[in-house]
């Protein structure tokens, strides 16, 4: 028996029924993971999904007399309720957990400030401004991991930890993401990456390590049904406050609040945890204004109606916005815009892109326009997703910046 669902492209995708409920399926996948990998750990955030995964995995680890690793990359500016959930879960399952609570300086995207487009967690010189102190057992020694580099990107740390933890043996990292959450997460699991023994809910990470997604087919309702039936198990109480604040089950997410996709929830900090909010404002440049505008009119996100000042074209407004930015930020955007203009020039726009086009065509990214560029600049879309770009891998970013400097001169664009 199967059901059919449609993607945004209209293509039908088959959902195969397994003849068991989602809890039984998750338990089966976790047992399979222990059977097939010598080293097993899970990525834990304290959110509702990874908390469910931890409880199930810890139960099975106890039954099998196995240890399971737990990686938590502490991003400093997090809810106290999240930290308490983590501590409660670790205490409950401590007999089977091998915990790596990482509180090392990590570079994170700050989408609410052009003057500080990135910020660093646990900066030693900013200790007096830290949102909170890490627990005593946290890893704070820069020499603990042989691969760690000061202020390395979160996205670089995670795969390198997998290689380090594997110790040359077969290794699985269980990740609590669900396909229902977003199209990108569906692609992560359903994509055409290298799979372990053709198992769809696995992905090759590198070396001897794979990611495993035991709860990929759970719905949000499934997650809360589990929490409801296991009231004796810890969960993150911040979700209770989110419900009181009026968020629906599907709007309730926990993540570092300054990223490009997460900043719309930044305003929640000062409602849910006022004491934490006061420290966040002092810690990260732009947090207060980011929360204010994201809540009241959406303009910091570019979601509200975007208008240009009187006397400006969209193109001249873009130049004005670039001139008002710090030089490093402006250079970053100019590189992306130059590629955008050059790409469309080779596709019929030899005389330049139009100032604006129909809203529908711009929304669907069918045509270029300076209004599209302006919207990217206004909402602080650092990686220019509105111009169809993806995030540049951090390890190649400096090389990319050097290459783009010469290319812009060759193309004669935004020199």
Short descriptors:
alpha/beta, 3-stranded mixed beta sheet, 6-stranded mixed beta sheet, disordered N terminus, 415 residues, 2 domains, Rossmann fold, globular
Describe the structure.
It is a single chain. Residues 1-13, 259-263 and 286-304 have low confidence and may be disordered. This protein has helices at 22-36, 48-64, 80-92, 154-166, 183-190, 220-229, 238-244, 269-272, 274-283, 287-296, 314-323, 327-345, 359-363, 370-378, 397-411, and strands spanning 2-6, 12-16, 39-43, 68-73, 97-102, 106-109, 118-120, 152-153, 171-174, 202-206, 209-212. It is globular and about 70 Å long. The longest helix has 19 residues, at 327-345. Strand 4 (68-73), helix 3 and strand 5 form a beta-alpha-beta unit. It folds into two domains: 16-220, Rossmann fold; 314-411, no CATH class. Strands 5-4-3-9-11-10 form a six-stranded mixed β-sheet, sandwiched between helices. It contains 15 helices and eleven strands. Helices cover 40% and strands 12% of the residues. It is α/β, with parallel strands linked by helices and 415 residues long. Helix 1 packs across helix 2, helix 11 packs parallel to helix 14 and helix 12 crosses helix 15 (397-411).
Strand arrangement, largest sheet?
Answer: 5-4-3-9-11-10
Distance between the termini: 60 Å
How would you state the average pLDDT, rounded? 82
How many individual domains? Answer: 2
The SS-based structural class is alpha/beta
């Amino acid at each position: 028996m199967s059901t059919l669902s449609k993607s945004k492209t209209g293509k039908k995708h088959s959902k195969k029924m397994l003849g068991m409920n989602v809890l039984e399926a998750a338990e089966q996948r976790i047992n399979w993971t222990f059977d097939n990998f010598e080293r097993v750990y899970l990525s834990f955030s304290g959110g509702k999904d990874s908390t469910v995964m931890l409880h199930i995995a810890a139960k099975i680890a106890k039954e099998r007399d196995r240890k399971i690793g737990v990686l938590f990359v502490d991003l400093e500016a997090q809810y106290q309720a999240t930290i308490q959930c983590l501590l409660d879960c670790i205490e409950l399952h401590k007999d089977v957990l091998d915990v790596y609570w990482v509180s090392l300086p990590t570079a994170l995207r700050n989408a609410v400030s052009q003057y500080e487009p990135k910020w660093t967690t646990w900066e030693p010189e900013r200790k007096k401004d830290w949102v909170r102190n890490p627990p005593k057992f946290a890893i704070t020694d820069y020499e603990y991991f042989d691969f760690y580099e000061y202020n390395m990107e979160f996205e670089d740390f995670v795969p390198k930890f997998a290689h380090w933890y594997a110790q040359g043996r077969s290794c699985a990292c269980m990740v609590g993401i669900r396909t229902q959450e977003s199209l990108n997460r569906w692609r992560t699991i359903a994509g055409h990456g290298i799979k372990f023994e053709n198992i769809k809910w696995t992905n090759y990470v590198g070396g001897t390590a794979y990611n495993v997604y035991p709860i990929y087919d759970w719905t949000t309702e499934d997650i809360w049904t589990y929490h409801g039936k296991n009231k004796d198990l810890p969960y993150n109480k911040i979700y209770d406050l989110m419900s009181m604040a009026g968020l629906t089950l599907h709007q309730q997410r926990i993540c570092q609040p300054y990223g490009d996709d997460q900043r719309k929830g930044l305003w929640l900090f000062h409602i849910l945890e006022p004491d934490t909010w006061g420290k966040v404002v002092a810690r990260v440049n732009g947090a207060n204004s980011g929360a204010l505008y994201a809540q009241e009119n959406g303009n910091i996100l570019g979601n509200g109606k975007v208008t240009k000042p009187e006397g400006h074209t969209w193109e001249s407004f873009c130049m004005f916005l670039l001139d008002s930015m710090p030089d490093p930020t402006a250079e970053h955007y100019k590189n992306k815009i130059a590629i955008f203009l050059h790409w469309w020039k080779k596709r019929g726009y030899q005389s330049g892109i139009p100032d604006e086009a129909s809203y529908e065509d711009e929304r669907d990214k069918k045509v270029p326009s300076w209004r599209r560029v302006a919207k990217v600049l206004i909402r602080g879309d650092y990686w220019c997703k509105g111009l169809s770009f993806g995030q540049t891998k951090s390890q190649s970013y400096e090389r990319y910046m050097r290459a783009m400097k010469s290319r812009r001169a060759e193309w004669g664009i935004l020199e």
